[in-house]
Structures are given as structure tokens and as C-alpha cells.
Design brief:
- This protein is mainly β.
- It has one domain.
- The chain has a five-stranded antiparallel β-sheet.
């Protein structure tokens, strides 16, 4: 039996993942507390950290995704793991799993259970790869909460979009009053967007992606 087929107008396939650097508003669509290394000679081996997939919510790259791998602190490193600890702290504060009152305190994070639907802002640095491809990586500790006025600019963020976040995941402007700018040029995976007070919304982890 013959197959009925209509050819496309071209054969170019637009990858679903980001291929550029820049600052973007992300929503977590998947979280993995026990990820494996995806590429290279150590492929499928345990990755010492956690990972999330974030979807870009605004701008010309809306709908593209990026896979963030956040490494655990390594006490054998020359900085005793301090850089990775700070990156993890910035990520969990940016996604409102923790806040400043939890600094220096050990906290249990249910990332896989409660991560989906949380938003954050991050800056990616474009890294050249093979065959002229670009592989964006998190630029050091450049991760911010969506209400942080110190965040790098990432385009227009509508109030209606932020209203999808539960009130308990939002932060008032005074929360960020003494924060210092995030440092860049480090690599967590290998080595001003202030907004008005939030309205009540859904419970954490229950943001409806179809509302975007």
C-alpha cells in the first residue's frame, strides 16, 4: 500500500533549544535531582549536582529551552566548593525555594516535586563548539529572582505573566535592597526587573503552562 506524502517547503529544522547567549526569563518545565552527563566521554555517568530545563517565556526566542546543570560544591577544589555553593544558593533563592533567612543553614529542597512552573532570570554566555555551533552556558552566578531590580534586563515581563506565580514565590522590592550584583565568567556546570507587589495565584508547582 502506497504512502501519501506532501513534502515541506524547505528542510531546515529549527532546534528547540537556545543557540545564543543573552539574558532570558525562564520557567522550569522539568527538574532532575539525579541527572546524568549527557555528552562526551563520560556520557550517562552520574552528574554531581542537579539539573533543570527552563523554557524562555518572552522575546524572539520564546519557547526555546535551555538545560541548566548546577554542580554540587567540591571540597577538593581550590576554593573548597565555595563558588558552586554560591551558585546553588542564588538558584534556590531565585526560584524562591529559600530566602536570605536560610543562608548558612542546611535545607531540604524538593526540586523534582515542586520545581515545575517556577520562574527565574538568567544570563547565558555563548560558548563556541565544533562545526561552528554555539553552546550557551550559565554565566557564572548570573541568576535572579523575577522581582529582583538588580537583574540583567531580559525584555518586557508582563504583570499578567508574573501573576501566574503564587504570592509566596514573589519578593517585595525591599527584599533586594542590600544585594550586590552577580558575578560572571565562572561556570556552574563545569568547574532591572523590578515589579509591583504580587496578587494571589496558584500553589507552587501548579502553574498552568497553557496560560502563557
Amino acid at each position: 500500500m502506497a504512502i501519501k506524502f506532501e513534502a515541506s517547503n524547505d528542510t531546515e529544522i529549527d532546534p528547540p533549544y537556545l543557540q545564543v547567549g543573552g539574558t532570558f526569563l525562564f520557567m522550569i518545565t522539568h527538574a532532575d535531582e539525579n541527572p546524568v552527563i549527557r555528552f562526551g566521554p563520560k556520557k550517562n555517568q552520574f552528574f554531581p549536582g542537579f539539573a533543570v530545563r527552563g523554557e524562555v517565556l518572552t522575546g524572539e526566542h520564546k519557547g526555546k529551552t535551555h538545560y541548566f546543570e548546577i554542580r554540587n560544591p567540591d571540597l577538593s577544589h581550590k576554593d573548597k566548593g565555595e563558588f558552586c555553593k554560591k551558585v546553588q544558593t542564588r538558584f534556590f533563592e531565585a526560584t524562591a525555594f529559600t530566602d536570605k533567612t536560610k543562608r548558612g543553614v542546611e535545607t531540604l529542597i524538593e526540586l523534582a516535586r515542586d520545581g515545575k512552573g517556577r520562574m527565574f532570570i538568567a544570563t547565558l554566555e555563548a560558548k563556541p563548539g565544533e562545526n561552528g555551533k554555539v553552546f550557551p552556558e550559565l554565566d557564572g552566578g548570573k541568576i535572579w529572582h523575577v522581582d529582583d531590580p538588580n537583574a540583567d534586563k531580559c525584555g518586557e515581563i508582563s504583570a499578567s505573566m508574573l501573576a501566574l506565580l503564587p504570592k509566596e514565590l514573589r519578593r517585595a522590592p525591599e527584599y533586594f535592597a542590600e544585594d550586590k550584583p552577580a558575578g560572571g565568567n565562572g561556570h556552574a556546570n563545569g568547574n532591572g526587573n523590578g515589579h509591583s507587589a504580587p496578587p494571589p495565584a496558584n500553589k507552587p508547582g501548579n502553574v498552568n503552562l497553557d496560560d502563557l
